Amino acid sequence: QVQLVESGGGLVQAGGSLRLSCTASGLSFNRYGMGWFRQAPGKEREGVSCFTWTGNTYYADSVKGRFTISRDVAKNTLYLQMNSLKPEDTAMYYCAAGLGNDYNEYFGLRPLEPYEYNYWGQGTQVTVSD
Hints:
By secondary structure, this protein is mainly beta. Helix content is about 0%, strand content about 50%. It has no helices and eleven strands. It has strands at about 5, 10-15, 20-25, 35-40, 45-50, 55-60, 65-70, 75-80, 90-100, 115-120, 125-130. Strand 4 (about 35-40) and strand 5 form a beta hairpin. It is globular. The N and C termini lie far apart (about 40 Å).
C-alpha cells in the first residue's frame, strides 16, 4: 500500500522560508515521478515542482528561483525548500507519486499536471502572512 506523508508546513512571514518533506512507503522511490502540488481555497490544484523518473526536474514559473526540489532516495523522502515566500504561496501543499514522464508535447505528457499522478498525500498547510 502506497503512503505519502507530508510535513513541514506552517505560518511564516513574507520573505521567509520553509522546507516541506514527504516520506514515501510502499513504492520504489527512485522508479516513480514525485512531485509537489498546491491548492488554494477556490482554486484548482496546480503543479509546483517535480522529479520525473529520469531524474529531470520541473518548476512552475511562479516558483522558479525561489523553490528547490530535492530527494533522498535512501530515506524515500522528497523535499521542497521554499525561500522568499509570498502571500500568494499560501495553499495546502500535497506530495504525489506517479509515472513521472518527462514533458512531451506530442504525446501530451506534462509532468506538472495532477492527472499524471496516481498517489497523493493528505497535504500540509502553508500560510504566508504579509
